[in-house]
Amino acid sequence: MAKNILTTLRMATGILTSLLLAGVSGNVLAMSPFQASYQFAYNGKNVGSATRTLSKNGNDWTYVFAAKAAALASASETSRFSFDNGKISANSFSRNSKVLIHNSTMNINFNPATKTINTRKDDKARSFPWQAGVLDELNAELQVREDLKNGGLKNGYAIADAKEVESRQFVKQGNETVKTAFGTFDTIKVVMKHDKAGKNSVFWLAPKLDYLPVKMTHQDGKTSYSMSLTGYKN
């Protein structure tokens, strides 16, 4: 069970990062630091919590996701990048996870000067071609927001993981009111496309909180998880 909980925590990170700010905003706001906290549920039972924190020092930005499922598992991810004229330039990404006494790590370094992306997952190292605009799982959500503010979403976003760069897509599906521990919000409902039958990811994004996801659910066969907002500070 511990392994399944950690897997869903890490899946939540990747899915939320590519969809956090998918929607249409009439207000052009600058990207700014914030912190959000969530309750995490696995198969309908509350088992842990998570936080997402964006900070900056000059033009050096850091985005951190941290989650913990009781005493069984924990995971953290950190993205470092620069930001100029509405475009994010990825510098590095790291992930550390633990299930009971078992640890796992992943690191990605983006090297535009040498046109390479170097990765290491545990003891397996890889290298593949760098391309302009490639993002990591965390800073992708921030690029989505900036694109929305400046004209609209792209057809796909190139996101690097340990093995390759892949394109991700998502669609908007109407509006809904969502109640959370932090309050009730008018939201835009967004669904991420999956090729696998029985797999479904849904996100509810609140314009009032700069399109932060106040709720998300993921179903994969008999396994499900959800995250619901418990706090937000800008």
Q: What this model shows, in words?
A:
The chain is mainly beta. It has a single domain, classed as YmcC-like fold (Beta Barrel). It is 12% helix and 58% strand. It contains two helices and 15 strands. The strands form two sheets. A 13-stranded antiparallel sheet has the order 8-7-6-5-4-3-2-1-15-14-13-12-11, with helices on one face. Strands 9-10 form a two-stranded antiparallel ribbon. Helix 1 runs parallel beside helix 2. The radius of gyration is 17 Å and the shape is globular. The termini are far apart. About 6% of the residues have low confidence.
**Domain module tally:** 1
Distance between the termini: 35 Å
Beta-strand content: over 45%
User: By helix and strand content, what is the structural category?
Assistant: mainly beta
- Major sheet, described briefly? 13 strands, antiparallel
The Cα radius of gyration reads 17 Å
**Please, what is the average pLDDT?**
82
